[in-house]
TrEMBL record, chain A:
The chain crosses the membrane at residues 34-55, 75-96, 117-137, 157-185, 197-224, 244-268, 280-304, 316-338, 350-374, 386-410, 425-445, 465-486. One of its GO terms (molecular function) is oxidoreductase activity. Residues 22-526 form the Cytochrome oxidase subunit I profile domain. Pathway: Energy metabolism; oxidative phosphorylation. Gene3D superfamilies: Cytochrome c oxidase-like, subunit I domain (1.20.210.10). GO terms for biological process: electron transport coupled proton transport; oxidative phosphorylation; respiratory electron transport chain. Cytochrome c oxidase is the component of the respiratory chain that catalyzes the reduction of oxygen to water. Subunits 1-3 form the functional core of the enzyme complex. CO I is the catalytic subunit of the enzyme. Electrons originating in cytochrome c are transferred via the copper A center of subunit 2 and heme A of subunit 1 to the bimetallic center formed by heme A3 and copper B. This is Cytochrome c oxidase subunit 1. Belongs to the heme-copper respiratory oxidase family. It is a multi-pass membrane protein. One of its GO terms (cellular component) is respiratory chain complex IV. Its EC number is 7.1.1.9.
């Protein structure tokens, strides 16, 4: 009798049939899947734009695209990758994993969850539609500095502003949902200091989102007022201040870059202990380091503005504060290394991506430390050295961590192991491609090539060619990833509930694939 | 190599060889005291990073090779060690303090523009630089001279491709030169790597920077803040000359100015205005309105059959001299001489089938220029 009711109960609450399942779903797993597919589509879209940029930069001279379209490509590539690929991918992983990790049946606010996702396709449809408008898409860089983005912007800037508003609403709702879930829906016994690190880093990320997305909304609204309603927030001729734009933008922008890396820290901190078969070396120091990084992210924004003519005291403050970030970041890297030390390691695809993350993110951290030195930044600022730096922390940083997470949890989601050899081929192609693309950019940046230029002087020709070849290798390797995911969804050897060799965490106590509803009765955590 | 060739075939539209392609890896040391101390800072922090990298990656790869399951490694279940954690927090902190001291010293020097021998105002325009020598009555614009044919791969690229201008900034060697940097439209950034001078040119702000170049020579740089369509085509060339040659140059500039004023008084033939006008148009107008006068739809209006270029000549003169507020159309009154202005307006009224048949007189434009100054 008891079993009967249970079965009926599950059937009644199974996924709806047909396409409407995806429109009306309030299930965290379905919404997680939607987010992940959406972000992958955006990753390929933004990637195509990157390849157009790299194809034009393959040789000096203008071959394929004209400067104005080149600027549209750099702008859209940046916006799509930041807001369309990396952020939704982390939200997708959070949706799938957080409830399972804290032992909750679903997210705290399931209907809002549906809405936060379904805003995104419309926001990006609006953003991409600007490519087909008269005057072209936004062409002022993803940092959209005024007055280039106000007085001198193409008419499509208004669509861009509304698209950014919609993304902001989506992110804020997603963040509220995550905080509410983590704070209220933990299983009995799951105290804060027992939370998996992916949950901890996402909790801190969600607070960062709530703090800074309204600032972004504020700055684009000020732009809207300047463009359409005759105000002069950023217009010097009307008594406004173009530098104010940069202060407000980077007050959002710097925490934003940590929003894109903290969940990556969390993923890597889950994966390394599993494949080293050893506990994370310093759990609590990881939590404190993440919190310190989040706090510091609010007081370093003007290091993006060392050349705008800040007063000397301002330069010194932001230089010292920025250098300080190296300390908690170092703590994290040392922790990962200490976890690997004297472990019993194996190198399945998630671990390969995680190890590459640690190495390449650290290289990005080193160039970040170099950029923090204000006098040296006068030479680095707005050159390819900066492009190399932030791509190192975002591509083999954030993106590799997302891929590591996908490989790590894919058997849990689909119930099948992914083809291991194919995963390794994907990893090595990506690894070679990424380094071939971004490492030479350090050299051309130091040699003096400014960023965001469609054509360059002849001494930069060699390394640009190398970078372009690397970009095509990296870009096309992602098709392997796509094929692998589809294959794994369709079939493969069945995965055990634990999937890996004695991993820690509640998500490994439920069957693979994870049932549509999990933890309807909360588990007991000791 | 095969891949390289294949890609070359696929992408290039012409087989242009490069006069100067090298595999430079590092920042130039530069020629000034400041640029050299910046270079030293860069190398110190670089070697610190290398040292930390060797230790961290060394331990990591040692573990990866020795502590792997396939070599029979058993996990040792240790975790948390307060002493180790304190050490790896304090040691980086100490390194950072050691690094901050020389960085602060260099920054303080960079921020001291006092006791300059010469003051030059540098103004960014879309997409050229204007140099005004304060107190010297020298004032000129500096435009890129790289021909479109080279950019479009129809001609072999020159040695200083994209890094060449018509009028370089000329400064004396061994003198402290203060730059007052600003902009009239969007934000630009004035950068000469060999001087380690990079400062944003921001409308409504005047930023200060300075240099003192001991060695005469030609130094090249570029705009480094995205400033619109032709951001990549806005080079900077600084010609550093010995004091005596610099003084000679200053005297020459004054002569040229006097000649310009004299020639503005003379009437010039239609043919001469048209040929001069075409040259001026290519340098100053074609970036937006395009060489064929058709502009870019919904971004920059065309001049072919436009109401301005085929309408009242006084309105045409007004918009060229004073610009159009709220648009990218700049005021060219200060940028061009009276003769050049007359020539370019005449050209615009008679090229591309506009055939208005009238011409602008340099003398009349000179009067407008003089009147605007008073």
């Amino acid at each position: 009798m008891n079993t009967m009711t249970k079965v009926e109960h599950t059937e009644h609450h199974g996924p709806a049939a047909g396409i409407s399942r995806w429109f009306y779903t309030t299930n965290h797993k379905d919404i997680g899947t939607l987010y992940l597919w959406f972000s992958f589509a955006m990753f390929l879209t933004g990637g195509c734009m990157a390849l157009m940029i790299r194809a034009e930069l393959f040789q000096p001279g203008l071959q394929l695209i004209q400067p104005d379209f080149f600027n549209q490509m750099t702008t859209m590539h940046g916006l799509i990758m930041v807001f369309g690929a990396v952020m939704p991918a982390f939200v997708g992983l959070a949706n799938w994993m957080l409830p399972m990790m804290v032992g909750a049946p679903d997210m705290a606010l399931p209907r809002m969850n549906n809405w936060s996702f379904w805003i995104l396709p419309f926001a990006f449809a609006m953003m991409l539609s600007t490519l087909f408008m008269d005057g072209g898409a936004p062409n002022f860089g993803w940092t959209f500095y005024a007055p280039l983005s106000t007085t001198y912007a193409p008419p499509s800037v208004t669509y861009f502003i509304f698209a950014v508003h919609m993304m902001g609403i989506s992110s804020i709702m997603g963040a509220i949902n995550i905080i509410a879930t983590i704070l209220n829906m933990r299983a009995p016994g799951m105290t804060m200091m027992k939370l998996p690190l992916f949950v901890w880093t996402w909790l801190i990320t969600a607070f960062l989102l709530i703090a800074v997305m309204p600032v972004l909304a504020g700055v684009v609204t000020m732009m809207l007022m300047d463009i359409h309603f005759g105000t002069s927030f950023f217009n010097a001729a009307g008594g406004g201040d173009p530098v104010l734009f940069q202060h407000v933008f980077w007050f959002f922008g710097h925490p934003e870059v940590y929003i894109m890396i903290l969940p990556a820290f969390g993923i890597v901190s889950e994966i390394i202990p599993t494949f080293a078969r050893k506990r994370l070396f310093g759990y609590s120091s990881m939590v404190y380091a993440t919190s310190s990084i989040a706090f510091l992210s609010f007081i370093v924004w003007a290091h993006h503005m060392f050349t705008v003519g800040l007063p000397l005291m301002g330069e010194l403050f932001f230089m010292y504060a920025t250098m300080l970030i190296a300390v908690p970041t170092g703590v994290k890297v040392f922790n990962w290394v200490a976890t690997m030390f004297r472990g019993s390691m194996t190198f399945e695809t998630p671990m390969l991506f995680a190890v590459a993350f640690v190495v390449l993110f650290t290289i990005g951290g080193f160039s970040g430390l170099m950029l923090a030195i204000a006098p040296a930044d006068f030479q680095y600022h707005d050159t390819y050295f900066v492009v190399a730096h932030f791509h190192y922390v975002l591509v083999p940083g954030a993106v590799f961590a997302i891929m590591a997470g996908v490989y790590y949890w894919l058997p849990k989601w689909t119930g099948h192991y992914y083809p291991e050899t194919m995963g390794k081929v994907h990893f090595w192609c990506s690894f070679v491609g990424v380094n071939l693309t971004f490492f030479p950019m350090h050299f051309i940046g130091l040699a003096g090539m400014p960023r965001r230029i469609p054509d360059y002087a002849l001494q930069f020709a060699d390394f640009n060619m190398v970078a372009s070849i690397g970009a095509f290798i990296f870009g096309f390797s992602q098709l392997i990833f796509l094929v692998l995911i589809i294959k794994t969804i369709r079939g493969g050897s069945p995965a055990t509930p634990e999937v890996w060799d004695e991993p820690e965490g509640l998500e490994w106590t439920i069957p693979s694939p994870a049932p549509y509803h999990t933890f309807t009765t909360p588990p007991e955590v000791k | 190599m095969k891949v390289t060739r294949l890609m070359t075939l696929l992408i290039s539209t012409s087989s242009v060889s490069y006069a100067r392609a090298d595999w430079a890896l590092n920042m130039p040391r530069g020629v000034t005291e400041i640029s050299q101390s910046v270079f030293d800072l860069h190398m110190i922090i670089f070697w610190i990073c290398v040292a930390i990298g060797v230790v961290v990656f060394g331990v990591m790869f040692w573990s990866i090779f020795h502590h792997r399951q396939s070599r029979g490694a058993k996990a040792h279940h240790f975790h948390e060690n307060t002493l180790v954690e304190i050490i790896w927090t304090l040691v980086p902190f100490a390194i950072l303090i050691a690094m901050a001291i020389p960085a602060t010293a260099t920054l303080v020097k960079m921020y001291d523009p006092s006791d300059a021998d010469i003051d030059i105002q540098v103004t960014g325009y879309q997409w050229k630089w204007r140099y005004q020598y304060l107190g010297e009555d020298i004032d000129f614009f500096s435009n890129t001279t790289t021909p479109l044919e080279q950019i479009n791969n129809e001609e072999e690229k020159g040695e200083n491709y994209l890094l060449e201008v018509d009028n370089p900034l000329v400064i004396p060697a061994g003198k402290k030169v203060r730059f007052l940097i600003t902009s009239v439209d969007v934000i630009h950034s004035w950068w000469v790597p060999d001087f380690a001078v990079k400062k944003d040119a921001i409308p409504g702000f005047i930023n200060e920077s300075w240099t003192n170049v001991p060695e005469p020579g030609i130094y090249r740089g570029q705009c480094t803040e995205l400033c619109g369509k032709n951001h990549g085509f806005m080079p900077i060339v600084v010609d550093v000359r010995p004091q005596a040659e610099y003084e000679l140059w200053v005297a020459q500039q004054k002569n040229i100015k006097a000649q310009e004023i004299a020639s503005a008084k003379q009437s010039i033939s239609m043919e001469e205005l048209m040929s001069k006008g075409e040259a001026v148009y290519q340098t100053s107008c074609a970036a937006c309105h395009q060489a064929n006068g058709e502009g870019i739809p919904n971004v920059f209006p065309g001049l072919k059959n436009s109401p301005i270029a085929t309408g009242d000549i006084n309105q045409h003169i007004d918009i060229v001299l004073n610009g159009k507020t709220g648009s990218a159309m700049q005021a060219f009154r200060e940028q061009l001489s009276a003769v050049d202005l007359a020539a370019v307006i005449t050209y615009e009224r008679n090229a591309w089938g506009n055939n208005m048949g009238d011409k602008a007189e340099p003398a009349a434009i000179d009067e407008l220029k003089v009147a605007a100054k008073q």
